[in-house]
Amino acid sequence: MMPESPRILVIGYNAFDITVPVDRFPVPDSKAEVPFVKLGGGGPGATAAVAMSRLGAKVQLVTPLTQDAGGLIQRDELMAAGVDLTGSVVFPEYACAKAVILVQPATGERTIFWSRGDLPLLDAASWESQWLDGVDLLYLDGHEPDLSMVAAREARARGVPVVLDAGSVRSGSEELVALCTDVISSSVFALQLAGSEDPLEALTELRKRGPKNVAMTFGAEGVLALAEEPFAIPAFEVEVCDTTGAGDVFHAGYAFSLACGGQFEYNLTFGAAVAALKCAHWGGRGGLPLLADVQEILRSGQTLPLSARFHLS
């Protein structure tokens, strides 16, 4: 394994999250009291950057920043976590992206309403080659396709691994997949891109498009993966509080482990451990674990049954 302080460049999305625990939706034209409302930073790329920094990585995040109240809270939170923002672009005339997250306390399941608003995408011309100097891994969430494709091409030319958090199919997704070494799909991305309803068939098609390692996450049901052969990784058993950000920090754990020199199966297991520990806390960044916490659950944690949908036998 490499030293436990890899250098990682992240290009992606950040948002201001408003998390609300809701037992049930109230009837129209009524009010419902809730125990608290949690405010904080969110977004796939930004949350992954915080998670990887918490694990011990040296992380630079390239993301659009704003100077409104939500944007300043995000920036302060990222900087407090040790994330380097020197390459990020400030758009003072725009409002930050926002998300309202309704969480059912009994299950930890969440419903998200989000909006980027009119916040511009980052321009490919803003790319700086020196951002990759000394970097062990490039991490992308697909929200900044133009800049991400420039970065991915150069990273591949330099032999730097490129990990894609493939949450939803959007403009540029197909081209970006072909430039990545590792694509970890949500339970829908690979199916949408491949036009298939079968997870293994979708992963097979995804791998044909370029990446060496591909996988799909299914929350508590586990992870279906494909390298030379298909295999599955179980989720770790924890008392779930809030699943917000679980996918973001799964990808962060996977990428951190890969940047440290881990192998595919271990990297997925490491990601599952990071995600499980997060789910025991409120908010997308609540309870992000230290490396020692992850190592402990890897040694002693219980796992859940794998999904029957994987059909590996």
Structural write-up:
The chain is of the alpha/beta class. The protein has a single domain, classed as UDP-N-acetylmuramoyl-L-alanine:D-glutamate ligase, CATH 3.40.1190. Helices cover 32% and strands 20% of the residues. It contains nine helices and 14 strands. The protein has an eight-stranded mixed sheet with strand order 4-1-9-10-11-12-13-14, with helices on both faces. Strands 3-2-7-8 form a four-stranded mixed sheet. The longest helix is centred in the C-terminal third of the chain and has 16 residues, at 264-279. The protein is globular and about 55 Å long. The mean pLDDT is 93.
Give a quick precis of the structure:
The protein has 313 residues and is α/β, with parallel strands linked by helices. The chain contains 9 helices and 14 strands.
Average pLDDT works out at 93
Could you give the count of β-strands? 14
How far apart the termini lie comes to 32 Å
Number of helices: 9
Taking strands numbered 1, 2, ... along the chain, how are they ordered across the largest sheet? Answer: 4-1-9-10-11-12-13-14
Give the CATH H-level superfamily: Ribokinase
Gyration radius, in Å: 18 Å
Largest sheet: 8 strands, mixed
Name the shape in a single word.
globular
Percent strand? 15-25%
Provide the CATH top-level class.
Alpha Beta
Total domain count = 1
Fraction of residues in helix: 25-40%
Q: Classify the fold: give the CATH topology.
A: UDP-N-acetylmuramoyl-L-alanine:D-glutamate ligase
Q: Label the CATH architecture.
A: 3-Layer(aba) Sandwich
Structural class: alpha/beta
Report low-confidence residues grouped into runs of 5 or more.
none
Order of helices and strands: EEEHEEHEEEEHEHEHHEEEHHH
